[in-house]
Amino acid sequence: MADPFPLDDPDERLKRILQRVRRIELLTRGLIKENLGGAYHSRFKGQGIEFDDFREYQPGDDVRFLDWNVTARMNEPFVRKYVEERELNVLLLVDVSGSGDYGSVEDSKRERMAEVAAVFALSAAHNGDKVGLALFSNEVEHYLPPRKGHGQMLRLIRDILNHAALQRGTDLAPALDLALNRISHRALVVVVSDFLTPVAMWRKAMRSLAAKHDVVAVQVLDPAELELPRAGRVTLEDPESGEQFVLNTSSTRVREKYEERLQEMLDEVSHELKKNGVERVTVRMDQDYAPALTAYFRSRRRRKRA
After folding, report:
1. Could you tell me the pTM of the whole model?
2. Three-state DSSP class for 173?
3. Is the C-alpha dihedral spanning 285, 289, 291, 296 positive or negative?
4. Amino acid 266: pLDDT
5. 205 and 236 share one domain
6. Distance CA 192, CA 189 (A)
7. What average pLDDT does range 26-42 have in this prediction?
8. Is residue 61 predicted with pLDDT exceeding 80?
9. Which pLDDT score is estimated for 230?
10. pLDDT in tens, 131-181
11. Is the Cβ–Cβ distance between 194 and 99 less than 8 Å?
12. Which of residues 32, 59, 83 is at a domain's end?
């Protein structure tokens, strides 16, 4: 794989990387401050010390949590709900395979994935949580154990942007297995990928991981991948395998067949994630990703409070 920042002067190369990191940090910091706050935080309910809300008493509830003032006003027993004050591990699994180098807009998918990962990293830092990183192609190529601090977040973004992948193919299973084996306590695992790989390769690993951890799938897609342009005969190259093939994109049948097969793949991914309780957030390269992430975080907060 070519270096994502092909500059001969190491100092200039580092300068460009740092400029991109600062840009990502400013973009995501504003997003978090204005829209998300700490709403990303996965709330594992328990008898902690942080007050959450009131709810009606249910048989089996600990009577020590009865709130007599609310009970008197409502003429029915109500208990106080709490959330556990537990430090949360956040592990980001980011796809660095060959398909991430593609981009029909200003940024590549790799750069957009770094921005999305930065949202979660900054959110973790804001909440005092630990955040770690695994970069994967068809194997895990880099692992950064969860740690706290702003410096960890900056290193994480630099690692995503500056990592020169060893392999161009994609297999989610090794990264999912790493998350399952390395993180002992329940954690938030964020998988950032285009998921354009056969579901059969990662179905079992995702099922095992989702049974233990809270998993979120962020699918990053480029519009040019979703619909073939009407451009006559074109030579296409698979960015992962290097295989080339010629398509007559002027043919309505060819375009429809392509879109049909792609939609089948996307539907299969969606079905598999939903079956395992994994939430999917779709990020399109031609659209602002803030609304998609904001909608996800807000719906997550509502569900956790229900």
Report:
1. 0.74
2. helix
3. positive
4. 94
5. yes
6. 10
7. 60
8. no
9. 76
10. 999 999 999 999 999 998 888 888 888 888 888 888 888 999 999 999 999
11. yes
12. 83
Residue 220 β-bridge partners: 283
Distance of CA 150 to the CA centre of its chain: 19
Chain centroid to CA 223? 19
The structure tokens 């975080």 sit at 297
- Do residues 274 and 194 both lie within one domain? yes
Confirm whether 184 is domain-assigned: yes
Q: What is the CATH number of the domain that holds 202?
A: 3.40.50.410
pLDDT surpasses 80 at 3 = no
Cα distances from 45 to residues 42, 83, 186, 215, 286, in angstroms, run 9, 5, 12, 17, 38
**Closest CA relative to residue 154, chosen from 3, 289, 28:** 28
Helix (H, G, I), strand (E, B) or coil at 283: strand
Could you tell me if residue 1 is inside a domain? no
> Which secondary structure element, helix H or strand E, spans residue 80, and what is its range?
strand 78-83
Residue showing tokens 């500059």:
7
CA distance 89 to 129: 6
Same domain, yes or no, for 68 and 215? no
Percentage of the chain with pLDDT > 90?
29
Q: Yes or no: say if 89 and 130 are a contact pair by the CB < 8 Å rule.
A: yes
Can you give the residue range of the structural domain that contains 120? Answer: 10-40+88-305
Residue 2 lies in a domain: no
For residue 146, the model assigns a pLDDT of 93
Same domain, 66 and 132: no
Residue 290 CB neighbours (<10 A): 17
What is the structure's pLDDT at 235? 67
In a domain, 93, yes or no: yes
> Which residues lie across from 193 on neighbouring strands?
219
Q: Kindly give, in sequence order, each residue whose CB lies less than 8 Å from that of residue 239, ignoring residues fewer than 6 positions away.
A: 98, 99, 101, 102, 168
Higher pLDDT, 73 or 194: 194
